[in-house]
């Protein structure tokens, strides 16, 4: 039995981004002898029922979750801010994992609010909503598009610390700093800051990868899919 499981995964229900089916994801778990797996689609729970059924059929523990879009301001404000580098910035990523039935209901509530009230390019919620509906949810800091990880990649320790303390307050005892390795320079740059935050603030680290396909040879198919979704050409 594997002593590691993946907690940050996307299937083809992460539309125009995930390049693996729920069945392919569960097949890979069988191959690697993993007993549990999380599925964290981008801003939706579309795959939740087929994922749960497929995982249970195979004897896997399904961990329900979502990679949420967290607005930089009020979730109902349809605006972006411009950073010092000229980048338009309207939301950050954050992963939520269901801990119990209360968390399941709160996650459904948050995702629904994102679509019904906070949709602006993406279905967004804000930190006030997280404060209201955090019970029963485990939170991880997400990928390089997460608020803390972006600050860490820019070597901005104080801003990363402020954000980490805020999320640790919203999710007491249920917040983790994600460390990922996709051989990206910005990720390498963020690791020392994330480790320092963990030591200084007593926030545990969790190792994840931002998995969008099941096998490494599927990278090209994912690249084509991603280009279709972002209206870009392959180089």
UniProtKB/TrEMBL annotation:
Gene3D superfamilies to which the protein is assigned, alphabetical: Metal-dependent hydrolases
Molecular function GO terms recorded: 3'-5' exonuclease activity
Pfam families linked: PHP
InterPro entries: DnaE2/DnaE/PolC, PHP_dom, Pol/His_phosphatase_N, Pol/histidinol_Pase-like
GO biological process: DNA replication
Residue stretches making up the Polymerase/histidinol phosphatase N-terminal domain: 5-72
Residues forming coiled coils: none
PANTHER family reported for this sequence: DNA POLYMERASE III SUBUNIT ALPHA (PTHR32294:SF0)
This protein's name: Polymerase/histidinol phosphatase N-terminal domain-containing protein
